[in-house]
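Self-study notes.
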Amino acid sequence: MTETAPIRLLVFDIDGVLTDGEAQPLDLELLAQLRRMNRAARQNPNLPAATLCTGRPAPYVEIMLQAIDGHVPGIYENGTGLYLPETYQFLPHPKVGNGTNFAEVRRILQRSLVQSGEAFIQPGKEFSMSLFAWEPVNTPALYDKSVAALGSLAETVELEFAASCLNVMPRGLHKGAGLAFLIEKTGYAPESMLGVGDSNIDLPFLAMTGYAAAPSNANEAVKAAVQYVAPRPTSDGVRDILRHFGLE
């Protein structure tokens, strides 16, 4: 991760970065600030635009990009898909394939963890899963329970914790793969990107961007991986990050 170019694209995780997480109110003032940045970038491509790299499903990414008037594609479901707002297209990552193995993974985890009452699945996802423990204190146990339930199929998936859930993706798919897909489709250079994340699931894409930052609520692995850690959490931390990099 080296500073080699002016920043042309800001790539934000959502939960724990732009927002305080699931079911929490949006920081409308921050979204308006990003909207102004995107509108300026439309007029002058030398100015930085903003987009999203999140585990949230495609419809959520669509509306959040509408909120910030985003024109650069957004990454959804932790890299398994790309939403192109300019042409209204939803593109699965080429590595998704026909989805046969993952459909079986979904069935097994639905039966073993959801029907048993231990977890629930965030709705709306097509190519991945996010498992939430009914009792948040039990979230760390979801990893070992998923591996045990899947048996040999565990080798076909990526299991990675976000701040409040366990994400399950097809093997080889993660936010870094999603960012590579975005680069392929748009031509943005990774060294001209500023990535902002807060949890382990963000590390693959933060390792690719020329600049990387985190709010104060980020975990220790993320804080160790980025150039700048804001003194404040979530959306207020994003404001600190924008100031630090001269992007207000």
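Second protein, same conventions, sequence then structure:
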Amino acid sequence: MNHEAVNREAYERPTTVSLYTDGPIQLAELRILVRHKDAYWGKRLLDIGCGGGRTTEFLRHCTDDYFGIDYSRRMVECCLSRFPDAQCKQCDVRDMKCFEEDSFDCVVFSNNGLDSLGHEDRLAGLREINRVLVDGGLFVFSTHNKNYSHAVTRPRLVLTWDPLRQAREVFRYFRHCRNHVRNRRFEEFHDDYWILNDRAHSYQLLTYYIEQSKQVEQLAAVGLEALEIYGARGELIPLDGADRLSSWLYYVARKVGSSA
């Protein structure tokens, strides 16, 4: 089993699908959607990693040209069962040949979906996003922050005086340890990025972490210009900063082209 197989297995589990079904728009998302309304309202909008429909519920009302994709079959099935009128299909961001060049005015990739990919696959996904965007089109996404002070985590037993709760905590701890022992061999530590088996979904995932300046460089390498970065609480932070308080960050980028 490799990096991709570990994550795909986790995202196809019904328990995981349920976590990406409901939930409010996050503070950073809300601020970006308000600030950049003209980039997507009434325009061609691609929602990558739409999951079970958390973002679909809101974004499909912003335009008649909404399209949602996810590489998890179960996620797409869940989304369509909730919103049968929405355009939604199974598709991999690394290979979006079903869409022509310049197909969308705005692309959104929320919930750190890009972080499920390994390094080379991540770059392939960014190149595809750049391809389907029009010149000057907006790309909004979130990604885990390598500078976060608690980025590296390991299973920890929580102690409590409540016997029933303690029994649950012991069971949870051993489940976390089992998953971490299985997946930690896939961790990678590079100067530019890390791939960590963090606490997400009980240590069942491998997650990509990158610091701000390197993410800006990564975007530029595929033809995308970083415009803004937002912390998890919706605060605007410097492009060249090193935020240590946000576990993930939201980026707003623009495709650099002749009409930008």
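Instructor comment on the second fold: The mean pLDDT is 92.
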